[in-house]
Amino acid sequence: MSNQQWQQFIQTSASPKNTGEISPLLDHETVMCDLSHLGLLQIDGADAFSFLQGQVTNDIKLLSGSSAHYTGYCTPKGRMLALFLAFSHHDHIHLQMPAELVAAVAKRLKMYVMRSKVEIQDVSDSMIKIGLSGPKASELLNTLFSKVPQNDYELVSHENGALLKLPSKHGRFEIFTDINHAQSIWSALSSHATVADAAHWEWLEIQAGIPDVVLATQEEFVPQMLNLDLIGGINFKKGCYTGQEIVARTHYLGSIKRRTYLVHLDHTTKPAPGDNVLNAANEAVGKIVRSAASPNGGYDLLAEIRCENVDSNQLSVGGNALSIQSLPYPL
């Protein structure tokens, strides 16, 4: 089965329940999503770990095959080009990111390989990614797999795929499998879970306070602006990497003046990543990071905002007022 056939199978097996608008019921149901909108790079070779260690903000050597973590990829000026969900599996390193970034990130990484024994491949199509979330998610996975991860960022590998537990108020998991096993896994799960589209997964990511970098926001943020230090995405003891001087200086001087907040917009027009957040004087004091329809109407957003403006209650985007909500972790 090719990736094109996989997409045809998804479309014919069960139509997504939501298409950009999220039903309030989906917040309480067990939901599954095709995650083909996410791309995946595979890093192989004898020097793969040491090569990547010098490129990203987190400690790649901590990826032992049983865990995952977020890690930033920066310019020499410390500005983020991408945010990866990184894990190792069968002696490969995998970097997950929005599919729109994969080609450019792969090209940039290859520029720095030089004589290192490293191979970088786009495996977005050959590795199928399925999201499962909700109160019965773990129970459903137990019917298909002999072991299900119990802790956030725990990775468990099986012959027919790998399971990764992600942060969420309910159980939330990502399944990585090949095209040969994907069809049977999808059919078994969709018999007991509601199929939703990528917009619902985006909303779940926002509720978990997980930031992202897309084409429209590349080089807009230093990692701490996106709370990477708060979600375990920066290791300050690992040594040098591209942009490390700026990231470390921000940390040790205590000069974090901008953070990412969970906000709500009660309006019918969806903001886009990169849109400006304005204060009462119509000055840009932040940018939208992620955006998804809320089950309760309007939109839930992650927005990077200058900290001194957060308590003003006069923030807006597109002329519409924003209200600050509580993140699942402290700022």
Describe this structure as you would to a colleague:
The chain has 331 residues and is an alpha+beta fold. The chain folds into two domains: 3-200, Gyrase A, domain 2, CATH 3.30.1360; 215-324, Elongation Factor Tu (Ef-tu), domain 3 (Beta Barrel). Helices cover 19% and strands 31% of the residues. It is built from seven helices and 17 strands. The protein has helices at residues 3-13, 48-53, 102-111, 137-142, 179-190, 198-207, 244-252; strands spanning 31-34, 38-44, 68-74, 80-89, 92-98, 119-122, 127-134, 155-158, 161-166, 171-178, 194-196, 258-265, 276-278, 284-293, 299-306, 316-317, 320-324. The strands form three sheets. Strands 8-9-10-7-1-11 form a six-stranded mixed beta sheet. The chain has a six-stranded antiparallel beta sheet with strand order 13-14-15-12-17-16. Strand 9 and strand 10 (171-178) form a beta hairpin. The relative contact order is 0.17. The model has no long low-confidence stretch (mean pLDDT 93).
Structure summarized in a few sentences:
The protein has 2 domains: 3-200, Probable tRNA modification gtpase trme, domain 1 (Gyrase A, domain 2); 215-324, Elongation Factor Tu (Ef-tu), domain 3. The chain has 7 helices and 17 strands.
Domains, number: 2
CATH class of the largest domain: Alpha Beta
CATH H-level superfamily title of the largest domain? Probable tRNA modification gtpase trme, domain 1
Main sheet summary: 6 strands, mixed
Mean pLDDT over the full residue set: 93
Helix content class: 10-25%
Using DSSP, what is the number of strands?
A: 17
In the CATH hierarchy, what is the architecture of the largest domain at level 2?
Answer: 2-Layer Sandwich
